[in-house]
């Protein structure tokens, strides 16, 4: 069972806001200090503990941090004032980058607290605990998140790092506390917008997009007989009409009724057509060969007599 399924079980489907999830990734790039010990005969031996929490008041702590905290790193950086950690995947046993899953961002800002301890043979010495408040964009998802370079410095201790924060898949808002996963089942028929709000698919309505839209009651069919179905509808069109809503008159010219090279013209609002025939063809569909004798035409023009034609069918003329 994945975490989303667990959340569904805990909070149910009807609750629009659930305990969402996001991530804070911190990639430590370098550390430096100016610490010498044993009468300045050698440099200090730093070990680290990291903490991510909501901003802390008073004395900084690296345990009980409400996002996450690490154990103390191992004593692997002996006698040094500078560590380049950019390409280290382990900082004395601590993963780098450090990726922390959060159950919703509680406040807009997050505090990174780092404690540095000098390893010694007998008692380790506290060197520095310092913090940086991070007011970062919480990106909608990991793929579109952007690392930001940051620096924290106090009493000659400096850490350079980069950080990014983002919501996990299907979680929305800057707190990553709103869950929306597109569905097309009896639980709902919807997609999600950029704010994590449900957008019902066509034919569905209601807050969970589980209710069928009665398109017949809404008069979707322009003419014909309407039949409502779950998530859809159909229109049984009268003769000569077509389209999802029977709103289109069929084009009678589509069936190419004009023969022998005739051109078809459809009526704008009725299912009728006329054919403009090529010379020597006539009839409703230009189906008849009409031979016009020259002398008859001459009489016609001069005498205004009703034209006489000799009609015959090709090739009998
Ligand atoms: Ca030392
Ligand atoms: Ca030491
Ligand atoms: Ca319907």
| CA radius of gyration | 40 Å
- Topology, number of strands: 30
Shape annotation:
elongated
What are the bound molecules? calcium ion
End-to-end distance, in Å?
87 Å
What number is the mean pLDDT?
Answer: 87
Keywords:
317 residues, mainly beta, 6-stranded mixed β-sheet, 4-stranded antiparallel β-sheet, elongated, disordered N terminus, disordered C terminus, binds calcium ion
Give a quick precis of the structure.
The protein is mostly beta strands. It has helices spanning 3-11, 294-303, and strands at residues 22-32, 36-37, 42-43, 46-53, 68-69, 82-84, 90-91, 94-95, 98-102, 110-118, 125-134, 138-139, 148-154, 157-167, 171-172, 178-179, 183-185, 188-192, 198-200, 204-205, 211-212, 225-229, 232-236, 241-242, 248-249, 263-266, 273-276, 281-282, 288-291, 310-311. Helices cover 6% and strands 39% of the residues.
Q: Would you kindly provide a written description of the structure presented here, covering whatever features stand out?
A:
It is a single chain. 6% of the residues lie in helices and 39% in strands. With 317 residues, it is mainly β. Strands 1, 6, 9, 12, 13 and 14 form a 6-stranded mixed β-sheet that branches. Strands 5-4-10-11 form a 4-stranded antiparallel β-sheet, with no helix packed on it. Strands 17-18-19 form a 3-stranded antiparallel β-sheet, with no helix packed on it. A hairpin with a 5-residue loop joins strand 24 (241-242) and strand 25. 22% of the residues are buried. It is a single-pass type I membrane protein. InterPro entries: DSL, EGF, EGF-like_Ca-bd_dom, EGF-type_Asp/Asn_hydroxyl_site, EGF_Ca-bd_CS, Growth_fac_rcpt_cys_sf. This is Delta-like protein.
């Amino acid at each position: 069972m994945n975490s989303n399924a667990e959340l569904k079980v805990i909070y149910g489907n009807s609750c629009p806001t659930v305990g969402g999830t996001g991530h804070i990734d911190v990639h430590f790039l370098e550390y430096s200090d100016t610490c010498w010990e044993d009468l300045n005969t050698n440099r200090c031996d730093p070990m680290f503990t990291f903490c991510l929490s909501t901003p802390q008041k008073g004395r900084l702590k690296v345990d009980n941090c409400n996002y996450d905290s690490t154990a103390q790193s191992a004593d692997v950086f002996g006698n040094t004032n500078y560590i380049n950690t950019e390409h280290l995947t382990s900082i004395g046993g601590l993963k780098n980058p450090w990726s922390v899953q959060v159950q919703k961002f509680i406040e807009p800002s997050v505090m990174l607290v780092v404690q540095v301890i000098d390893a010694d043979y007998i008692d380790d010495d506290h060197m520095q605990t310092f913090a940086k408040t991070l007011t970062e964009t919480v990106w909608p998802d990991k793929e579109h998140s952007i690392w930001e370079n940051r620096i924290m410095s106090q009493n000659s201790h400096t850490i350079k790092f980069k950080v990014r924060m983002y919501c996990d898949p299907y979680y929305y808002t800057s707190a990553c506390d709103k869950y929306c996963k597109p569905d097309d089942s009896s639980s709902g028929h919807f997609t999600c917008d950029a704010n994590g709000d449900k957008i019902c698919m066509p034919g569905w309505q209601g807050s969970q997009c589980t209710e069928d839209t009665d398109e017949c009651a809404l008069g979707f069919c322009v003419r014909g007989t309407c039949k409502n179905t779950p998530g859809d509808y159909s229109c049984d069109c009268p003769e000569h009409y077509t389209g999802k809503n029977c709103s289109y008159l069929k084009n009678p010219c589509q069936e190419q009724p004009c023969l022998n090279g005739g051109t078809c013209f459809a009526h704008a609002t009725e299912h009728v057509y006329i054919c403009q025939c090529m010379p020597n063809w006539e009839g409703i569909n230009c189906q008849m060969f009409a031979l016009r004798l020259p002398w008859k035409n001459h009489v016609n023009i001069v005498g205004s007599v009703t034209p006489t034609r000799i009609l015959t069918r090709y090739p009998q003329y």
